[in-house]
Design goal:
- The chain is of the alpha/beta class.
- It folds into 3 domains: about 5-120, 3-Layer(aba) Sandwich (Rossmann fold), CATH 3.40.50; about 125-375, tm_1862 like domain (pyruvate-formate lyase- activating enzyme), CATH 3.80.30; about 375-440, Beta Barrel (OB fold (Dihydrolipoamide Acetyltransferase, E2P)).
- It contains 12 helices and 19 strands.
- The chain has helices at about 15-30, 55-70, 80-85, 105-110, 160-165, 170-185, 210-215, 240-245, 260-265, 275-285, 305-320, 345-370; strands at about 5-10, 35, 45-50, 75-80, 95-100, 115-120, 140-145, 145-150, 165-170, 190, 225-230, 250-255, 290-300, 325-330, 380-385, 395, 410, 420-430, 435-440.
- Strands 2-1-3-4-5-6 form a 6-stranded parallel beta sheet, sandwiched between helices. It has a 6-stranded parallel beta sheet with strand order 7-10-11-12-13-14.
- Strand 11 (about 225-230), helix 8 (about 240-245) and strand 12 (about 250-255) form a beta-alpha-beta unit.
- Helix 11 runs parallel beside helix 12.
- It is globular, with a radius of gyration of 22 Å.
- The mean pLDDT is about 95.
């Protein structure tokens, strides 16, 4: 009998891309492959790329060549957002195949070698599969994608170029997938989309996200729901009240404000202001005192000067975000912002933006440390991710810590293993992490 072929997938970029990687793995397993976690042992290597900003594109190409060098005898496939965005324009002879990310059901044609280039459009939503056989999270946690694409059209953003317009998954399919995850023992379901609040608006009507969360939080089982990425300009009415009612919905809000200066926001094609955004934050924290708020902010967008940056800095001081990520503006072709300034001016602006970024992050580091202190002296469920060998401790996360992007919780105690949900008393802050003790 011929030996089983092995496949290795490197998933780059966001959680939505990880879901795609899990679906690609499912197709591979159904076509006679087995997964390996070592690229050097693989017969086929798939690099599921990100193409959102310049640094992500560079990481994708660097990773491709690194894996190619690590195993030159394997077939190597460039897949995902970078492939979808540039397709046949890519001059990458080293790739054995290039595969976009809109119709993953065609992956077997790439695997078999029948096709070398496939940049398909989306299939009918009802035909898309949602029975992932392999998850790439730590045990007990999974991502659940509820939509593709985006209709916001922020002037800097290439997502509509890559992923297209908003396409909400049918609600019954989302709920059915959630039931399967719960039945398989998943405790933490991370709901992801480019903008959760826009769910269901692609039919021209109002958001159906609160309705969806109401149905998901009514399901039976031992699980919690974490919401990732809600656009602040279209924050759904009724969501805060639902979160206050339903304990299965974690009071964790990932809201990418991007900036606070009104002029910069208008140039970004966003509609907020410091007053509007602070009002939203206040409403959340008033109704949900334990709420955790994460944001993402952009530095160096065309038109941002020191005055605009100071407005942003003041906003961050007042908002007191629990967590914040930041990045500098990337000048992306096929976006409205691309022609707002030339490349030479852009490079000069980047130098200034990186200095402002360091200043902003220093302020946020202090705020995060202050915000973490409020957890000391409290008890929380902790989802264990890793057992530290040779030590009586394990590493996990409480409700205030999303996978991959936030700090962790170190739990002192014995007998814990990945996937366990234990109760721990938090006794101190360690940098951006928490330290707790297992409660028997």
């Amino acid at each position: 009998m011929p030996s089983v072929k092995r496949i290795y997938i490197e998933s780059l970029g966001c959680a939505k891309n990880q879901v795609d990687s899990e679906i690609l793995l499912t197709y591979a397993l159904e076509n006679g492959y087995e997964r390996t976690e070592n690229a050097a042992d693989a017969d086929v290597i798939v690099v599921n790329t990100c193409g959102f900003i310049e640094s992500a594109k560079k990481e994708s190409i660097d990773t491709f060549f690194s894996l190619r060098d690590a195993n030159p005898g394997a077939r190597i496939i460039l897949a995902g957002c970078l492939a979808q965005r540039y397709g046949s324009e890519m001059e990458l002879d080293e790739a054995d195949a290039i595969f976009g990310n809109r119709d993953l059901s065609l992956f077997p044609e790439i695997l078999s070698g029948k096709e070398k280039l496939l940049i398909p459009d989306y299939p009918d939503p009802d035909s898309e599969r949602d029975d992932r056989k392999t998850l790439l999270n730590f045990p007990g946690s999974a991502y659940l994608k509820i939509s593709e694409g985006c209709n916001h059209r922020c002037s800097y953003c290439a997502i509509p170029v890559i992923r297209g317009s908003l396409r909400s998954r049918p609600m019954d399919k989302v709920i059915a997938e959630a039931k399967r995850l719960i039945a398989s023992g998943i405790y933490e379901i991370n709901i992801v989309a480019q903008d959760l609040g826009a769910y269901g608006t692609d039919d021209g009507g109002e958001s159906k996200f609160v309705d969806l969360m109401g149905k998901l939080s009514s399901l039976e089982g031992n699980f919690v729901l974490r919401m990732l990425y809600i656009h602040p300009d279209t924050f759904p009415e009724g969501l805060i009240e639902l979160c206050a009612e339903r304990k299965k919905i974690l009071p964790y809000f990932d809201i990418p404000f991007q900036h606070a200066d009104p002029a910069v926001l208008r140039a970004m094609r966003r509609t907020g202001s410091p007053e509007i955004y602070l009002s939203l934050i206040n409403r959340i924290r008033t109704a949900l005192p334990d709420a955790v708020i994460r944001t993402t902010l952009m530095l160096g967008f065309p038109g941002e000067d020191r005055k605009a940056f100071n407005t942003l800095l003041s906003f961050v001081e007042k908002a007191k975000f629990d967590w914040m990520g930041s990045f500098t503006y990337s000048r992306e072709e096929d976006t409205p912002a691309y022609d707002m300034r030339g490349e030479e001016e852009h490079e000069k602006a980047q130098v200034k933006a990186r200095k402002w970024q360091k200043e902003l992050e220093a302020v946020q580091e202090r705020i995060t440390a202050e915000q973490l202190e409020r957890h000391v002296g409290h008890e929380y469920p902790v989802l264990i991710e890793e057992k530290v060998e040779g030590e009586d401790l394990a590493i996990g996360r409480i409700y205030a810590q999303a996978p991959d992007v936030d700090g962790l919780t170190v739990v002192m105690g014995r007998g814990m293993k990945p996937g366990d949900v234990v109760r721990a008393g938090i006794r101190k802050v360690r940098g951006i992490d928490l330290e707790g003790v297992l409660i028997d």
